[in-house]
Each structure stands twice: as structure tokens, then as C-alpha cells.
Amino acid sequence: MEVTAPGGTRWSVRVVWEPRWRVLARRFGGWRAQRRKDVGPGDVLGGGAEASSEIGGHRLGSSISDELVIIGIVLFALVLAAVLFWWVLLPLLLIIVDALIVLILLAVSLTARVLFRRPWIVRAAATTGETTEVEVVGWRAALRRRDAIADSLRHGLSPAPEVIGR
């Protein structure tokens, strides 16, 4: 909720829900690819083994046999299927799994917050950097406290730090 005080200062008053342990909310670095410097092109290709000029018992000559065309089509279809899976199906599957995990965690955490009566934080922050926080037990009480702080700021009063709803 945005409020403008009579002096022209803009305040943002909201109910905030932050984890108790800030360590849990931090991100622990990104996934970094570890590069190996001792890998050469011969290691990737299997030690530089020489390719045979015979495929399927037929000596390669000037004409391409039907077997090579079929093998090429099958390889192309496998590569296309792998690309489709990697770039389309796997990301969609991961998005669905992530959404389900977030919804389950949200339901469990909201239930735990209600059952263990953890306080909600009502924070009023001004554009000048001034911040006031009040802990209030109960969601409806926190919303009433948020509205009371917004009304007091609208009328030129400073937000009172006392806790209401405990």
C-alpha cells in the first residue's frame, strides 16, 4: 500500500513474510562448470582410433547404398528427438515440477505459520530510507495494523512501534 504523507514523503506499508533464518533465504552461488584442462581432442574422440572403410560388410565405393541412407535417416531422427526432448520437453517438465514444489512448500509453510503462531512483520518504508517494523500475530490483525499505520502516515503522524495483536 503506497501512502503520501502531508510533507510529500512517499511511504510503502506492507505485510512482509520473511524466513526466520536469513541463511535459508540466501543463494549459495551459481552452478559453475568445472573445466578440465587435461582433456585433448584425442580423448574426446576415443584416442584417435582409425575409422574403418567397411560398413555392414560392404566396401564403400562410389555409390551410396540404401543401408547408409536408412542409417542416416535413423541417426537424424534420433538427434532430432534428443534436441526436442532437451530443449522443449525437459524444460516444461522441470517448470511443472518446480511449480508443484513451490505450491507444496507454500501450503506447508502457511500451515506451520498459522499453527505455531509466528508473527507477521508489518513494514513501513519511506523513500528517504526510514523504516519501521512491527511484529503482529495473526493475518487479519497484521492487515488491520497495516491500515492503521497507513492512516497515521496519511495524517502526518509517525508510525508507532508498539505491537498490536499479541
UniProtKB/TrEMBL annotation:
The keyword Transmembrane applies. The chain crosses the membrane at residues 68-89, 95-116. It comes from the Bacteria. Keywords: Membrane, Transmembrane, Transmembrane helix. This is Uncharacterized protein.
